[in-house]
Design a protein that fits this description.
- It is built from 7 helices and 10 strands.
- The two termini are 17 Å apart.
- The strands form 2 sheets. It has a 6-stranded mixed β-sheet with strand order 6-7-8-3-9-10, with helices on both faces. Strands 2-1-4-5 form a 4-stranded antiparallel β-sheet, with helices on one face.
- The longest helix is centred in the C-terminal third of the chain and has 16 residues.
- It folds into 2 domains: 144 residues, P-loop containing nucleotide triphosphate hydrolases (Rossmann fold), CATH 3.40.50; 66 residues, no CATH class.
- It is an alpha/beta fold.
- Bound molecules: adenosine-5'-diphosphate and magnesium ion (MG).
- The site of magnesium ion (MG) has 4 residues, from helix 1.
């Protein structure tokens, strides 16, 4: 679904942060992306989301060479990729419901066609009581789940999550992990960037490990 070939990345005139990355994210696969702070996990996720261009190498997303995509092509590809950013990026003047519904609204869908799906998904992530609350009054864990619901509402082929358990206690982290596994079982490929070893130990999943700019993969 996504393929990297000899991808390298540097910021401005700095050293190469990522070097010679070659890997594939397969349809319906589940993997952790790990490595110490500063290893390049967030940078790699940004490249997977086509929000950052590699300095060299080839990225193919859903069969298309990322370098040849125009700005106009991006929305239709990104719609198939759900992202949970580390800082959530929820809109504070909107309710949980409106935040989660936003991708569908932006797409011009009629609210009557999705209203119940949005409510059901918000309940599924355990925020049924917070439907009309502003993100301002949500706890860190609640914001995390709202961001996850927004990433999932348009049924992406792939979910990218950057430290999705970074703000929650271990029981909630385990619950979120179960949520990702359940999502994966329904057919979505999942990439979770994390340096939470306790979290990774709970699942026998593929690990993509970044260190010193290079990637090692343990299937
Ligand atoms: N926008 C940026 N400009 C310059 N350097 C950056 C930028 N973003 C990240 N870096 C650098 O790239 C390296 C990898 O960062 P990052 O991808 O955030 O790692 P991680 O998510 O694993 O902590 C770090 O050395 C960081 O300082
Ligand atoms: Mg990061």
């Amino acid at each position: 679904m996504i393929r990297f070939e000899n991808v390298g990345l540097r910021y401005d005139m700095g050293p190469e942060v990522l070097r010679d990355l070659s890997f594939e994210i397969r349809r319906q696969s589940f993997q952790f992306l790990t490595g110490p702070s500063g290893a390049g996990k967030s940078s790699l996720l940004r490249m997977l989301f086509l929000a950052l261009k590699p300095t060299r190498g080839l990225i193919t997303v859903l069969g298309r060479d990322a370098a040849t995509l125009s700005r106009a092509d991006l929305p239709s590809i990104r719609r198939r990729i759900g992202v949970v950013f580390q800082d959530f990026r929820l809109l504070e003047h909107m309710s949980t419901y409106e935040n989660v519904a936003l991708p569908l609204r932006v797409r011009g869908k009629d609210e009557s066609s999705y209203r119940q799906d949005v409510i059901d998904l918000i309940k599924w992530v355990g925020l049924g009581e917070r439907l009309n609350a502003s993100p301002v009054v949500l706890s860190g864990g609640e914001k995390q789940r709202a961001a996850i619901a927004r990433a999932l509402i348009d049924q992406p082929d792939i979910l990218l999550a950057d430290e999705p358990t970074g703000n929650v206690d271990p029981p909630l982290a385990r619950r979120l992990l179960r949520l990702f596994l359940e999502l994966n079982r329904t057919g979505t490929a999942v990439v979770i960037a994390t340096h939470d070893l306790a979290l990774m130990e709970q699942v026998d999943a593929r690990r993509m490990v970044l260190a010193d700019g290079r990637l090692e993969i343990y299937d």
